[in-house]
Amino acid sequence: MAWKGLLQEFREFLPVTEKTPLLSLHEGNTPLIRLERLSAQLGIELYVKVEGANPTGSFKDRGMVMAVAKAKEEGSHTIICASTGNTSAAAAAYAARAGMRCIVVIPHGKIAMGKLAQAVMYGAEIFAIEGNFDEALKMVRRLSDIAPITLVNSVNPYRIEGQKTAAFEVCQQLGKAPDVLAIPVGNAGNITAYWKGFKEYHERKQTGLPEMRGFEAEGAAAIVRNQVITEPETIATAIRIGNPASWEKAVQAVNESNGKIDDVSDAEILEAYKLLARTEGIFAEPASCASIAGVIKQRKLGEVKEGSTVVAVLTGNGLKDPAIAMEAADIAPMVLPNDERIVFEHIQGAVHQ
Ligand code: F0G
């Protein structure tokens, strides 16, 4: 049977009523892929949940379809969000699909080109402030309090409801919950959503519960350091967040699950980013690779046990941020004249003399 999107596929788990429009871009049902080489190298069963396969290329589609459908059901005409890029892309797409107005506020110069291109194409009204994500979020929260505009950041509980479905899918695909769930942490909505999802699925289907391991970027590791970071900095712009809105809920998820919020450096993120693409053929954006970097770090330290089953969430598609890819890769196209002989000469070893 063809996949119908989250609101229909997981209706019994979601706040979907007869009045909820069954909005869909066929989000969800993303692949869970076993990493053959990295599993062998690390001595674990390592899988990735490829959320970059969603319609706008990130996990945000799961939450946005629910939040926008409920906004529409409640008679709202306009949605608003602050974003490091992916939320704005998803909000703009689902607003277009639902025939609603979409306003996004982003940190100027700190969002990846692919994400901006999406928001532009989907017709959002875009404001780039000379400030960071945390400041943008403060503004849109206030505006949505005083104006008839629906806030669709992950402080909107419908976002969490939609995003929890990824945990259901992991359990279905693996046949049970993994031992460890590794996930990047920015505003901390997604780790909150996964934990809620694993608990609800376990209650109904006895699939077990994973240890939740969340990974912040070192330069934006507010939860790890237990202090707000006023000027967060990281190459992983998606998680360049210094005051996560769901801070307490993330701490609660790791406490309840015997997990941990940890950090990884930009160098570790970039290393994992390249490794994943070159050894497994999977291109995820830098922030996503914080999960893989974290697993590698904790495996070395013995914090992830040999033989354990680990699912790392790859939150966004690598194509979102081509500029970082071109910078990070040490491969560049070699420009040659349009001459077969010269081209063949350069492809050393391919042609036997
Ligand atoms: N990975 C990617 C690719 C993201 O875009 C985000 C968040 C995260 C991880 C972290 O998820 O915030 O739920 O902890 N992006 C938001 C945005 C902030 O505006 O697109 P989180």
From TrEMBL:
EC supergroup of this enzyme: lyase
Protein's name according to its UniProt entry: Threonine synthase
Catalytic activity: O-phospho-L-homoserine + H2O = L-threonine + phosphate
Cofactor(s), names only, from the UniProt record: pyridoxal 5'-phosphate
Family affiliation: Belongs to the threonine synthase family.
Positions of modified residues (N6-(pyridoxal phosphate)lysine): K60
EC numbers on record: 4.2.3.1
Keywords: Amino-acid biosynthesis, Lyase, Pyridoxal phosphate, Threonine biosynthesis
